[in-house]
Amino acid sequence: MSAQSYKELTREISANLAPMRSGQPALMQAFGALGKAALAAGALDAKTKELIALAIGVAARCDGCIGFHTQALARLGATPEEVQETLGIAVYMGGGPSLMYAANAVAAFEEAMPATASA
Prior knowledge:
Blueprint lengths: L5 H11 L1 H6 L1 H15 L6 H14 L3 H13 L4 H33 L7
């Protein structure tokens, strides 16, 4: 990924999707519904589902996926340890290229985490 932040990347992607939202509204609504259905409560909780999505994003080498899913994980209260264990599975399944994207995912998650007060 370039030097821009993951927050900037996700804002840029969201803005760049505007033509798709207006030009292909049924497609975009269906994709949104798919995401909502996939993340709905079930046997797995939302955080676990987002961890899976992050691992797949890393293995698929998708910077946008890393940005969106690390932000969701930060909102859901994921810990750095949970994210790192998930990234370990992504590296196991995806090899060296996934390791490079796992490093990016750590940076994206750290960026997405709320600032904590100094002790």
